[in-house]
Amino acid sequence: MIKKAKGRLRLLVSMLALVVLLSSCGGGSSKPENVNGEKVTLQFWTIALQPTFTPYFNRVIADYEQKNPDVKIDWKDYPYDAVTNKLLTSIASGSSPDVVNLNTEFASQMGSKGAVVDMNEYLSPEEKAAYFEGIYNSTVINGKAYALPWYTGTEVLYMNTKLVKAAGLDPAHPPKTREELSEWGRQVNRKLGKAGYAQQLVSKLFAIDGIPILNKEKTAAAFNTPEAVTMINNLKKQMEDGVILKEDADFAQQVKYYAGEQVAFELAGPTFINFIKTAAPDVYKNTIAVPVPTGKADVRLSNSMDLVVPTKSAHVNEAVKFAVFLTNAESQTAFSKAANTLPSTKDSIKDPYFTQSDQSLEAQAKVVSAQSLDKATDYMVGVPNAKDVNSAVTRAFQNILLNGTDTKQTLTALEEEVNDILKQ
Question: Which one of 113, 214, 273, 321 is separated from 354 by 20 to 30 angstroms, measured CA to CA?
Fold first, then answer.
């Protein structure tokens, strides 16, 4: 699996290099193309939103087309695993879409290669100020904003109250720090033989403890420190003690372990509820949501989806205008209500939907996470070649925590690898 992942990564890097080469030969037109009264057609791509949210998009697109009669939106939806390859292929072949839904990691990767436009060149100060600053800045590199933040999520702590009570713990007084969460996990393991929680071995583990990935200039790795060694060795001890499952568990695996009551806790955004409610209704009924325990850094990590406009778009001005419309407060509030996500716009959370709770699990998670949006930031904020850097960090964590390599030696090798990535 690792060899396949490396192969896919090399292919993406090669294709992205081709995209950059073609982009350097000239971008698309930024002028309206409305010859003889013909409509401008914008190609709009999203990730895995059909058919569940087709009614919402049909409404919002119809609304936009009514307000902008010279524009037609051609909406296409692709699976997550397919969209990046399809995007790079289309740009390289000269048939670029105009507005594309990407995650923050890949949006930053595209931006650092000059493959998407700088939104700061098109947005007014008022339009930029509409978004939460930390979330908007997640794709800002060297002063250039390569995406508009769209729907997002911040982590909350889900706990299975049945298991917590059986372990002799009081869910009415949940852990407030990562250290306290570790102690709760140890007690769950001692009393019940289950783990505290599962997690994915990604770069956010640095951010939780306030360990910077890169230096302030974003030119070199900055994580090879005694603090990082201590943090990673602490994670290793927690895995040995059963606090954390000894595994690199992606989101689907985390859902599986929580649904099967193999773990007592889950740290995730509000969308986790949609999966657990379907997979394990009884576990859902026993679950509550509370504020996420903080690490040494008092930050709230966001997991955002963004909208980008490729530089090869033939209709950049119109594309940016449509992206702004999709991410304005009105549109984001409506989508959040339909999709159980969080908005990235400040005015959206003034809606009572984000402040009032009926004590359902959905409402608990929504209110708790919405309250943290003003502190939210992406853990890869401002990192050039973010996708490659995160992949390198993940492999290093796997080698240390799962394969037993030396922490300091592996961090030193990772430092060299990240520095090489930054030179690409």
Answer: 321
Contact 47, 80 (CB under 8 A): yes
Interval 368-389 mean pLDDT? 84
Residue 383 near residue 283, CB atoms below 8 Å = no
Q: By the 8 A CB rule, do 135 and 378 touch?
A: yes
Indicate the CATH number of 156-301+383-422 among 3.40.190.10, 1.10.20.10, 3.30.70.2740, 3.30.390.50.
3.40.190.10
Could you check whether 2-14+21-151+303-370 and 156-301+383-422 share the same CATH topology? yes
- Each residue of 275-325: pLDDT tens digit? 999 999 999 999 999 999 988 777 777 788 999 999 999 999 999 999 999
CA distance 211 to 267: 20
> Which residues have C-beta within 8 Å of that of residue 384, sequence separation ≥ 6?
108, 112, 141, 218, 422
Burial 129-168 (b: 16+ CB within 10 A, else e): ebbbebbbbbbbbeebbbbbbbbbbbbbbbbbbbbbeebe
Nearest to 13 by CA among 88, 69, 68: 88
The encoded tokens of residue 246 equal 């000894």
DSSP code per residue over 274-331: HHHHHH-HHHHHTEEEEEPPB-SS--EEB--EEEE-BTT-S-HHHHHHHHHHHTSHHH
For the chain, the domains span 2-14+21-151+303-370, 156-301+383-422
Could you report the per-residue pLDDT of 199-217, keeping only the tens digit for each?
999 988 998 888 999 998 8
CATH 3.40.47.10 is the classification of domain 2-14+21-151+303-370: no
Cα–Cα distance between 276 and 271 in angstroms, integer? Answer: 9
288: left (phi over 0), alpha (psi -120 to 50) or beta: beta
What distances in angstroms separate CA 31 from CA 118, 125, 237, one per listed residue? 16, 22, 59
